[in-house]
Amino acid sequence: MFSQLHLVLGDVDEDGQLNIIDIVRVVEIVLDLGEPGSDHENWAADVNADDIINVEDVVMMVDMILSDIYCNEDQFGCYSDSLDCCIRTTSHEFEWEVLHFGDGTDNFIKDTWIFDNGHIWCVGQFWENGEQYSAKVWDGESWHNRKLLQNYQGIIRVIPTIRSMWAFTEEDIWFAAGTVFHYSGNDTLTTMYGEFSWTPPFYGRIWASSPENIYFADPWESNIGFYDGNEFTDIDSLTDVPLLDIWGIENPETNDLTVWTGGFNDNNGETILLANHGEDWELVSDLYLYPAMQDTISSLIISIWTSPYSNLYVNTGAGIYIANYNTQGEAELVYEYPIFSAYIKRIRGNSDNDIFIAGINGDMRHFNGETWYTYDELRDEDADLTGLAFSGNTVVAVGWCHSGFGENQGVIIRGIRSGE
To answer: Nearest to residue 65, comparing CAs of 47, 52, 87?
Structure first.
């Protein structure tokens, strides 16, 4: 139940686990029902280290077992006289592939989706050999170019500038490119909202809990969109601040859905974080302060992500805040950037002990539950990483690279964890 790495006290039979067998042996020692305890057994059985082996030690052993049972899967029991949980650490070790591609000036990748390590989509726009493409798709062995098409007033054309995607299955994928599209296995997509990509709303970010709960954010005109499985609705966000990211979570205790969106205005620094707990959108934070507050969300809102255990992570110009899902602005600044800026563009993760951030200059960093690690080998002063996905042991960051002479290329960075 516990690995030997975390357990010494309580493991009277030295098998690397604390379980009922150890408790039975301690009871035998307490009641003198069998052989006297060996030196190791007596030491391991004295869990509270008071030089007396009695029922208090048995109770603590039970608590230790229950702590490990009721901790989240990314935690373990701290083995004190409480049921506190300590976070496990994950590996920083990844093997990397870096891909640059595209001809000319109009190449960029905006978002990515990991179905599994053998199937990855990266979407945006790029040109190769005079042909326009919408996506690079990884099939487990190599990357392939993909054209996603729209029927635009009777003309079939490649969809330009896909900025975000969300997939439920390999044949149920949503795309935001100003206009909202749906893919169901045919490369000519269905237009779900907004035939003209140059008229507002310009939806560019997506988050969904199910095909009946899909949310869209507008990073230009500050609109919020919602699709309930049948009908698309525009929602007044009550702000004119560009909404740069959107994310949500289902409360594991109540099954209620909470969705957040936020962003900042480049022109004046105005910033905002909004939350929806099931009905109306409400203000969580609009504090643009420098230096930022340590206990209140109070800087440029750039990216949002939630862990499976209801923690809200807000990436800001000052650093990363962590808050409860029902926060009204209270939070803890857990990772402060040395320079106040908006250079970290995206935060995504598997859990509280397995988080990536990515940004300009090819900056990629990983949090393993204890420490942050920067991958210096990926640093590139010409690269901007604006899209990020992390699933299991696979991470993908995407963006573009300034290649000189006014040209730029699409960039894909794919990492596979090698140290687990």
So the answer is: 47
Is the backbone of residue 151 left (phi > 0), alpha (psi -120 to 50) or beta?
beta
Residue 145 CA to residue 123 CA, distance in Å, equals 10
Residue 394 half-sphere exposure toward CB, CA atoms < 13 A: 17
Cα–Cα dist 134/177, whole Å:
11
Longest dimension (CA), the chain: 89
- Nearest-angstrom CA–CA distance, 174 and 356: 24
15 alpha carbon, distance to own chain's centre: 37
Q: Which residues of 203-216 are buried (b: 16+ CB within 10 A; e: fewer)?
A: bbbbbbeeeebbbb
Contact in structure between 382 and 402 (CB atoms under 8 Å)? yes
The C-alpha torsion from 323 through 328 and 330 to 333, rounded to 10°, is 50
What is the separation, in whole angstroms, between the first and last Cα of the chain? 19
Question: Structure pTM?
Answer: 0.81
Q: What pLDDT digit, counting tens, does each position of 118-177 carry?
A: 999 999 999 999 999 999 999 999 999 999 999 888 889 999 889 999 999 999 999 999
HSE (side-chain half, CA atoms, 13 Å) at 395: 27
